[in-house]
Amino acid sequence: MVCNNIIQDNKDYGIYFHYSSNNKIYNNTIQNNGNNAIHFDCSNNNTIYNNTIQNNTYGIYFVSSNNNTIYNNTIQNNTYGIYFGASNNNTIYNNTIQNNSWRGIDFHYSNNNTIYNNTIQNNTHGIYFVSSNNNTIYNNTIQNNGNNAIYFYYSSNNKIYNNTIQNNSWRGIEFWDSSNNMVCNNIIQDNKDYGIYFHYSSNNKI
Question: Are 64 and 89 contacting, i.e. CB atoms less than 8 angstroms apart?
Fold first, then answer.
């Protein structure tokens, strides 16, 4: 386990896991590192909770890492909050993800992830999906982001329900070449452009 540390001002990564599984990372402050605060490469079944992660490049970075759980963290003032690349079956809940200069949560080629009960605010993009399928997003508050709250690009079979999506500076939810998604029981209000926008996207349920 990695717990109760202050990890700061390192020139590269705060914590780096490579082919490392079943670790617990909790009650740490990880800040002002030159690269990512916590980096997982081919690392599965890790649990990250009750940390403050701020002023790094990526708050938490996963590549080819599956079945990880991230909860009760404050992730703020990084370039990216959380990034998933080719990482599946992860769970993200009860986090505050805010004031990151680019994306709150970013998924690339990542499937079957679950995102719920998070506050995602004051980032450029709230949640961003590229070629990521079968993800579930529910019971989140996504607000005051500088672009879209949720963006899907070539991403299908995702479920978005029971979220509050408001006061974002572009669109509430945007789908680009994304099909067979479901959007229901959300409050989508006071966004500066469209509430929901579809471009070359078919067979979605609203």
Answer: no
The reply to whether the predicted model has a pTM over 0.70 is yes
Q: Say how far residue 1 (Cα) sits from the centre of its chain.
A: 23
Biggest alpha carbon distance in the chain? 49
Q: What is the pLDDT of residues 95-148, one digit of tens each?
A: 999 999 999 999 999 999 999 999 999 999 999 999 999 999 999 999 999 999
What pLDDT does 21 receive?
98
Q: Rounded CA gap, 83 and 151, in Å? A: 14
Q: Which residues contact 174 (CB under 8 A, 6 or more apart)?
A: 148, 150, 151, 152, 194, 196, 197, 199
Non-local (6+) Cβ contacts of 76 within 8 A are 53, 54, 59, 96, 97, 98, 99, 100
Cα 73 to Cα 90: distance, rounded to the nearest angstrom: 15
Contact 124, 148 (CB under 8 A): no
CA–CA distance from 7 to each of 10, 110, 128, 144, 147 (Å)?
8, 28, 28, 30, 31
Q: Rounded to 5 degrees, what angle do the CA atoms 67, 69, 71 make?
A: 165
List b or e across 115-134, with b for residues whose CB sees 16 or more CB atoms inside 10 angstroms. Answer: bbebbbbbbbbbbbbbbbbb
Q: Specify the amino acid at residue 125.
A: H
DSSP tag of 205:
B
